Amino acid sequence: MSTLVISEPVGRAWAHIMESYSPATIEFAGTLIVQLIFFWVPCVIYMSLDALFPRFSERHKIQPAPKQPTRSEILDCFSVVLKNQVISTALHGLMIYISTLAGKGAFRVDASIPTMHEIIRDLFISLLLREALFYYSHRVLHHPRLYPKIHKIHHRFTAPVALAAQYAHPIEQIVANILPITIPPQLLNSHILTFWIFMAYELIETTTVHSGYDFFLNAAKMHDLHHEKFLIYFGAIGVLDWFHGTDGSKMAAKRKAKGSAAVGKGVSEDRNGSVVKGDKSD
Ligand SMILES: [Zn+2]
Ligand SMILES: [Zn+2]
Questions:
Q1: Does the predicted model carry a pTM greater than 0.85?
Q2: How far is Cα 88 from Cα 106, in angstroms, rounded to an integer?
Q3: Which of 1, 55, 176, 239 is surrounded by the most beta carbons within 10 Å?
Q4: Interval 157-195: pLDDT, tens
Q5: Ligand nearest to the CA of 173
Q6: Ligand whose nearest atom lies closest to the CA of 158
Q7: Could you give the CA distance from residue 112 to residue 9 in angstroms, rounded to a whole number?
Q8: 2 has pLDDT over 50
Q9: For the chain, domain boundaries
Q10: How far apart are the CA of 17 and the centre of ligand 2, in A?
């Protein structure tokens, strides 16, 4: 199927939307729709597997049944995630209001549709920038002063489920979850359609890596291990973990050499949830 066959109907539909609504309304409503579909649908699919296909679910769960969260923990997770999404949607509305007053929107919302070349280029650069923003903000959140007040909440789920992707302190939700996804396309002056594609991908990625399942060539393995062991795999792609020596193989070798459960910069927790300071030597 040629690009033209896809882009013509998309172009017509997009032109119709642009004629019918203001750029502010399109940015606000479109972003909310992307969040609702690409976060909640994967969550429902992943989290219903256990009830619908228990044997299949058990075969593919990374961590064993006794470590999985209880029903009341999942209900608490649901209310925290809902609160976070209300806060981030309200903040997005406020940002759009301010940028409308300033006469310049955060994203490019116009009648044109981006070319395939522009979309791929922006997605690739955004992916790398997001990795850097997420990795370093995540490492900062493991600082002994910040961890107990902020990031400890996200680490409540040592065996995560998809919904736990946004189970976080509101500061973490903004600094580590929202800004690393929204800043890169804004820096690139990306088209709003490119931003929505990027956001949809990142939401599927975060629900998948928190799902607790070994699907998509065990894509969740690294972040699942971060939830279980705390001081390894701070990033999403793995490039910066390799660069900084926080990938699993190097950390396992250090742990073996030092005979310690908490190796690496920052803090982790012991089995009772008490904060344990990591080794500062790396
Ligand atoms: Zn996580
Ligand atoms: Zn962490």
A1: yes
A2: 15
A3: 176
A4: 999 999 999 999 999 999 999 999 999 999 999 999 999
A5: 1
A6: 1
A7: 13
A8: no
A9: 3-231
A10: 40
